[in-house]
Amino acid sequence: MSKKFTKDHEWISLDGDVATVGITDYAQAQLGDVVFVEVPEAGKQVAKGDDAAVVESVKAASEVYAPVSGEVVEGNGELEGNPALVNEDADDSGWFFKMKLADAGELDGLMDEAAYADYVKELD
Amino acid sequence: MSEKQTFTGNRGLQLEEALIFEIGAYENCGVDLEDVPQVESRLGDCAAQGNIDLPGLSEPEAMRHFVRLSQKNHAIDAGLYPLGSCTMKHNPRLNEKMARLPGFSDIHPLQPQGTVQGALELMDALAHWLKTLTGMPEVALSPKAGAHGELCGMMAIRAAIEAKGELATRTRVLVPESAHGTNPATAALLGFKVDGIPADASGRVDLAAFKEKLGDDVAAIMLTNPNTCGLFERDIIEIADALHEAGGYFYCDGANFNAIVGRVRPGDLGVDAMHINLHKTFSTPHGGGGPGSGPTVLSERLAPFAPLPYVEKSEDGLRLVENNGDAENNPFGRMVAFHGQMGMYVRALSYMMSHGADGLRQVAEDAVLNANYILASLKDVMSAPFEGPCMHEALFDDSWMKDTDIDTLDFAKAMIDEGYHPMTMYFPLVVHGAMLIEPTETESRAALDLFIATMRDLVRGAKDGEIDRFKNAPELAPRRRLDETLAARSPVLRWQSPEAKKAAE
Lengths: 124, 505
Hints:
CATH architecture of chain A: Beta Barrel
Number of domains of chain A: 1
CATH topology of the largest domain in chain B: Aspartate Aminotransferase, domain 2
Largest sheet of chain B: 7 strands, mixed
CATH class of the largest domain in chain B: Alpha Beta
Low-confidence stretches of chain B: none
Number of helices of chain B: 16
Strand content of chain A: 35-45%
Shape of chain B: globular
CATH superfamily of chain A: RNA polymerase II/Efflux pump adaptor protein, barrel-sandwich hybrid domain
CATH class of chain A: Mainly Beta
Largest interface: A-B, 9 and 7 residues
Mean pLDDT of chain A: 94
Strand order of the largest sheet of chain A: 1-2-3-9-8-5
Oligomer: heterodimer
Shape of chain A: globular
Structural class of chain A: alpha+beta
Helix content of chain A: 10-25%
Strand content of chain B: 5-15%
Order of helices and strands of chain A: EEEHEEEEEHHEH
Largest sheet of chain A: 6 strands, antiparallel
């Protein structure tokens, strides 16, 4: 499926019953050079809007929120040793975690690519 | 600036200084020590494992090394230091003189109390001033910094909630989005769930959003006033009333008390607990220069839970109440081994008594006046995110830089070449590319005018496309721009000898 977006600049992409979550390219550009990432461990239960991961740049430390509810099945271990991946490839290999959705219906409340692009345009 | 190369690498009398590991020698020692008698060690597993590799220098070499390093350190004693939110105000030398009086500096916390009545009297007098200035009935002097004071206040709130049997249900703490990061951290440390409150367009707490979040499960709000945008929270009394009606407690972060001391008593605003950064509001060395101190004032509702120890008047003079059994009320415990930062108490009280109540009021007024002078003198060329006057610090965002190719960091680095420590950058987080300038009350009109003229010239340069002046900065500092990203991603935390470094490669 195509990606969905949150107002807090996370993206989520569903493949079967597992979704991948990351932060958007806009978010990484705003953060600046990412120097530290903490991803959740498999098995962690998160509700929509919960703190799920931490991203720290030279400018600021921020939470990454769970876009929807569910169970984390994998954190991107690659980011621990190579946080720069978030800057280089936020949309793809710089993903944060994968999760099993509790309710796929929650995705309907998120923005699609066009709506997110409009949202970002308004912020600038 | 001359490009002349020198044989030593020094530039005039600005001496380049190597690391102590590079100039010292392990076989050297600055003092002659007697041979240590050979005795059987009783340290067991605790004995030192291997050599700790401390280089030795002669006494004058050691002196010069640290003096040269200190000369590279910019300080409030060297120039205007507009670091917002940090309140880098002048530390009067009188404070230092008082703190060095032997009766304050040469005493020990375990001394019999009858021999330190003067020190106890000073603590009692400081407590009196703090309670009077805040309009609160109780103060815990012992917390050792702002965040420690926050913890103290929130522990008192937690104890009060527990005493009412509501600990299981009051689990949520409301924290505005612009708060200092220590606020949510403190709440989380005590097991509360942190719930953010959005700001409104004027940079203050969104009152409607706040009221919507109130409920039986709200333990407290943690609010900074003036807030981190340098703005007074105008709805604070309405916030306090609504919160109290819902059964919650009001923690006020007193980090910015310096803007209102002598003008506003937090007790009158409905505050239940507030820490006071002695090291900001009442001078005393700041930053790396000395310890912090965060006494926390408590309202009638929280006073019974004030932590140990505290000073009490008894028939035989003053005494410290050290144990729960001796306390009239229900202290939630104690936060430090002894009594807190005695040296900071002396400095703060010295500052208070030398200014007097009217002088402290003028301190706050002048701090606000100076900040507004800067805001008014720069807002036509830089961009202020919020309308109207500010309190003790002037906040700008980076929207004025939009067409310039430079960002907040570049601007700050160029300020170093001009001889200014940069303002606080990228905080508060709610403002894009934030630049937070706090001149403090101790800067003269002439000093402010020069600072403003410098800032205006930098802005003109940025808008005129003088990119090198910013992107290459700092060019004139002892070190050029550091690679913050590399330093954070791959920190080198221990010095390595050139041989070891080579071997590792």
